[in-house]
Structure of LMBD2 protein:
Amino acid sequence: MSGAALGLEIVFVFFLALFLLHRYGDFKKQHRLVIIATLLAWYLCFLIVFILPLDVSTTIYNRCKLAVNSSPAESNGSYVTLAPSKQKCFKPWSYIPNGIMPIFWRVVYWTSQFLTWILLPFMQSYARSGGFSITGKIKTALIENAIYYGTYLLIFGAFLIYVAVNPNFNLQWSQLQTIGIAAANTWGLFLLVLLLGYGLVEIPRSHWNGAKRGYLLMKTYFKAAKLMTEKADAEENLEDIMEEVRKVSESIKYNHPLRKCVDTILKKCPTEYQERMGRNMDDYEDFDERQNSYPSEKSLVKLHKQVIYSVQRHRRTQVQWQILLEQAFYLEDVAKNETSATRQFVHTFHSQEPENKIIQYFYTPTVEWYWECLLRPWFYRVLAVVLATFSVIVVWSECTFFSTEPVLSLFAVFIQLAEKTYNYIYIEMACFLTIFFLSICVYSTVFRIRVFNYYYLASHHQTDAYSLLFSGMLFCRLTPPLCLNFLGLTHMDATISHKNTQPTAYTSIMGSMRVLSFIADGFYIYYPMLVVILCIATYFSLGTRCLNLLGFQQFMGDSEMTSDLIDEGKELIRREKRKRQRQEEGENRRREWKERYGNRDDSTRNRAVHTDQKESSFTETNANRPLSKYTRSNGRTERDRIELLQDAEPLDFNAESVNDDPLESDSGR
């Protein structure tokens, strides 16, 4: 079992990272190198979080063995017995042999650092480049990253000069390595505290507000109003870009040297625009070299970049709008079913996607009603209380983890109590829950934040390559300081505990931070205390209020602008719901008409043809018959015509389809 736990976690974390990447990325349309680089970055960061508890339990066992070896003892099988106290050091079930963890951490850490500081920034610029060749994209990426890399070299040079000037230090390779690690961890810790302070408050509060009746529905209306504005802006931007592409496509003919670049741009356009531009092509006309109105290759590169961005944004807003509509319709159904006497959940619209038969068998309308209308609010309240308790413990421990006598950090108290009894299962579970909660607070903030339209992680495969790579960079920079902060909270870091004990394998690869004493004894200890100020600011929504004052509308219950956007979103959802109802009613009428009269179409046509032939022959042979004969025949033909008209498909007319609202006419356009 020594390596089984490590192997199982390695496999499990890989599929976890693959599942999350599949949810946000698009494996079919995005470049394979982007998918592989992002998957590797996410995988390494998640792997550090899951493997670190095993490192802690292994370190505690190794400390026990060292204590036994330094005192009279006798060996007995898989454990060592102390002579004075007859205490046993059991080997943990997840024990990892010596020598494996240092190599494992060294490979994982330096690979993640190579990704975040060198490879991923280069791939970001490469992915956003509008070049038409690999060489052009590489050149653009190198130019854009020249300032980026120069800034990091400047920071590293400042640390290097500080150590060189200080006469107490002799520059060695290990010390240079420690300086580089300290510089990277300092930057990561600075960002970590900001994200952690937001997540510690926002995650419990979001679950508590989710239990309130009508809160999620009001917030969905608010999102609908904002998303409609963004959707209209994306459509307008795409129309403008496509107009520029059309002009370029008409000016550059088939035998122009830059025609290949134009064809590359046209392939990135939506299908309807490609067909529209293809019909207006006059490729038989040659270009005139004497004309100077042709765009340059540099302008085509810029246009190519704009096309990629506008098409991605337009597709993302369309998908998000449909998802938001489904969410709004479902929340409205929940509000209606809360007062249902039958206690069965009734949907206004049927799901467009086929449901799983197993889920449909167990998740019946009755079960769905009890969960959505009765149990789910209470579950969210209990979960919010548990998360708030964890947040309070984290804030308290962040402010007191530097105190070793007495030990004030609650996480350190829990680990030390379990260490005395060598309860490795409890140690690993406590460590896992602690670092998992810290990771959720930090990583969820990374998934929530949005920097205009440059960085935005959108689910349902709508995240662009730039945002995926940027998230990989953030994860690789935040995870090492997050783990060091966790080891400090539990006093497993010798720099914090001030004890001459065996360090964890993860701490050993970081080197001794005593090379930079002002960071080890100052920044790493006192800067995390700022999480208290950030939690208070998040609780009172100071950041949200500032953004609202700057013109970025945020959801605030006491804001007049929020109320207006909620009313606007409610009206938009009502229109879309009415439109969906009309479509379903029309489809139902057509289906019922076909089921009722569909089998009579062929027989009616045959009867009509036979009647015409019979009447024509009857007219030729009996021209002198009385007029009443013709009258009867004409009456029969009239009845056949009426029957044919009855078999025709009815018009889908509804009084509500007549719309005088200019907004709805625009959306229809």
About this structure: The chain is about 70% helix and 0% strand. The first strand starts at residue 73 and ends at 76.
